[in-house]
Structure formats: structure tokens, C-alpha cells
User: What shape does this take?
Amino acid sequence: MNIPKEIQIVIEKLEKSGFEAYIVGGCVRDFLLEKKPNDWDVTTNAGAEEVQKIFPESFYNNKFGTVTVINKNAKDKSLRNIEITTYRIDIGYSDKRHPDEVKFTPSLEEDLARRDFTVNAMAMKIENRKLKVESYKVIDLFGGQEDLKNKIIKAVGDPDKRFGEDALRMLRAIRFAVQLDFEIEKTTFESINKNSALLKFVSQERIRDELEKIILSNKPSEGIELLRKSGLLKYIIPELELGVGVSQNRHHIYTIYEHCILSLKHCPSKKLETRLASLMHDIAKPQTKAGVGQDSTFYNHDFVGARFSKRILKRLKFPGKIVDKVSLLVKNHMFYYNVDEVSEAGVRRIIKRVGKENLKDLMDLRIADRLGSGVPKAKPYKLRHLEYLIEKVGKDPISPKMLKIDGQDIIKILDIKPSPKIGAILKVLLAEVIEDPKNNTKKYLEKRVGELNKLSEKEIAKSEKVIKEKKEEEDLKNKKKFWVK
Ligand code: ATP
Ligand code: MG
Assistant: This one.
């Protein structure tokens, strides 16, 4: 791997104008690990105005004191915007999250010392490029290279002081540990333990961004467990801690909390929503537990859990789309399916309830749930059979739009004015077609419209209810199977 040409050019232009310039921070860490950095940051002793003069194609961000050089044509996305920041120090952190003041400094050493971890506090550049005897110059004042080699996350300077300045750094330590598969150095970890309550001062948005990275890493369950051991979890998702040490029933070998993190560990999906749902699908079990020992039950933990996960994710300021999706998955994670017991109509009702676009994720959640219970096979015959049936009934009508007649047709057939009765009739027709798609013909539906029209609106609603009750029967079987001894 090499430092990309675009970055070299930026550094050389700054040097030609008489300034110092280095790549710095996360990109140096990733480069030395031979990993592709997310983005390349350059640091310099030139002030923002001077940088802008050197790079006409750039813009200045006042809030961060950063000049972004634009490379529209770079093939690699990570090179289209290169951020150049003047050496700086942060002064005073009276609110434990923002420096009271940012001061520029002529000293690279001071800039590196303000950074969070030794592996993030290095700067480097290529020397002698023109002479074709290229060598890397690494400025490493805090033993970052040694810690990289030993896979260690260690605070720069006194950890108590550094976490006191910006409490988010504690969460970042865990994020880097799971992203890089590193260990947190002992004194640094003890300091997190001691200072965990400071996380209260950090905004939910900043916490969310780090949590998201932990969940999407290759070791998400280890991340949650580190959060718990370090004392941070109770300031992020205290609801998860309520499941610690709480046993379940004869169907489970793990405690609630263990099962939550194991489900996350085994989630086959890389999607944030599905992973969050895996972690939180049983979040309401502690509150819904009834009975004792092997005979305990957790009635309605899926519905209550859907509400809890909504509340938690809203609190963490996740986007509405993610909140709704996770909540939907949690709510439906108990869907019942047994070969020969659930009809094709039952499968169509599952599809109608959760939506076609959510089926894959719901299936992944079920696999996570199973594997997290210590069940050896991810996808038993049962689930494979359900997938086959979903495929088979996939084109069957499950929404009013898919019926062969619509409200306008009914108005014509009955020669009546628009009224709620029409909606009620359509609901019955849909329920009958979900029962048996062969019913979806103009002829049959028109005949039924005539018959239903003879009933009162109340009676029509009742016939729909009769069909719906079948669905509830299936849910009941589910409850019997999983919740009652
Ligand atoms: P990523 O790969 O996720 O981008 P990164 O290490 O580049 O990881 P950034 O958040 O992009 O992390 O920050 C860039 C650099 O700025 C870090 O490597 C670190 O040197 C410094 N930094 C960022 N946030 C903090 C902080 N809260 N406290 C101290 N230094 C920080
Ligand atoms: Mg970065």
C-alpha cells in the first residue's frame, strides 16, 4: 500500500509554500495496519487562510477550523474531500464534551498530544519522493507504533484527565477495540470503569454514532459486553442490564442478557436494523417474566419489546426509519411456523402483517434468535420450508390493490354512493382471497359483493372478524408452544 498520489500532492504543495504537512490520526493508524482508511486527514502549521490560497478548489468550515480540498475527479471516494486542519490544542473542557476554546499552535507535538489514543496520535509523510529513495517518516511521540504492534488501545497521557475532558473517548476506546480487534490497556480500562458516569454529559447523537460503529463491527457482542463490564452500558441501554443474571425457562440454557448478546453475535445480517433487533428482541423479557424456574413465562414480551425498542432507539436519536424497522422486527419475531400446521393462507397472512420487504430480515432475526439460544442448526428444515412457501405464495394477493375488483367497481355493481360499507366489503373480499387466491376472480368477487350487500355494515365487519380470528388461533398455538410449560 502507498499514500495516494492526491494526498502526496497536497502535502508537497504545502511544503513548497514553506509549511509543514503530514497525514495524521486515524489514516496513519490504518495505513500502518495496511488497511484502507475511511478518509485522509492532513495537518499543517499553515493557517486556514493560507491553506485556502494554496488550494483554490476548497472550502472552509468555520466550526472545525478545517479546510476541505475538493478533488471532484478522484476515482476513490475517500480522496474526493481531503481535510486539512491547522495544528491545534483544545483548552478547557468545563462541560466534559467540548473544549471551551480551540487554539492554533505552531507545534505538531501539541496537536498530537490532544488526540485520544496512542494509535490515533501519530503523523507521517513520505520523504525523498523525488529522489526515488522513498522512506516513511513517522512522528510517534506516545508509543503508537508499539501499541499497534501489540494491538493495544491506550489513552494519550493521564486517562482520568483525558476522559474528564471528553467523556465520549471512553466509548471510542471500546469502539476501536472491537473494530480493530485490540485490547484496551489496563490503566485505560480501569479509568473508564471509574469515570463511566461522565458519559451522562455526552449528547445522544455522539453516543449513537459510536454505538452504531460497535454494532456494525465484526465483534458487536464483545462490544456490548465491554460496555457492560466498563460500566458504560447503563448510560446507553440500561434496559439490557435488567436481563443480567435473569434465568428463563426449560426452553433456554442462557440468561436473558446472555441470550441477547449471543443473538447479536450470531446475527447473519450485516444490516444495522437486523443487528439491533437481534440485540433487543427479548428486551422486555425481564418485565414480562411470570412464574418461577423452569415454568417461567414471558407473555407478550414481543409486543412490549417493540415498544421498548422504539423508546430506546428514539432516545438515542436513531432515524425514524431505523426505529420503525427494528420495532417491527421485534414485534413479529415470534411468528409461528410449523410445517403442515401453518397453511399457505397463514403464510400469506404473515407476509401481509410484516410486509414482503421485511421478510428476509425477519428470517435473519429468527436465525440469530435460534443460534443465540444455543440451538445447533441455524436454519432447520422448518425455516427452509417456510422460505419455500414464501417464494411460492409470493405473488398471491395480500393487499386490496391486488384484488380483481376495486371500490369503483363495487359502486357500479351496487349502484350506490361511496360509503364506509364499500371499505368493509373490500376487507372481507381480501380476507377471503388471502384464504384462497383462487377466489380472486371478477366473477366470484362480484357474486360476493351481491351477497355481502344484503348484510348490514355491522354484519359485514363481523364476517371479516371470523376470518381474522383464524389468525389469532395460530398465534395462540404459538403461545402454547413457546410460553406455557
Ligand atoms: P474512523 O476510521 O472511524 O474515521 P478515526 O480514528 O479517523 O476513525 P475520527 O473520528 O475520524 O476517527 O477522528 C480522526 C482523529 O481525530 C482521530 O484519529 C483522533 O486522533 C482525533 N479525534 C477524534 N475524536 C477525538 C476525541 N473525541 N478526542 C480526541 N481526539 C479525537
Ligand atoms: Mg476518520
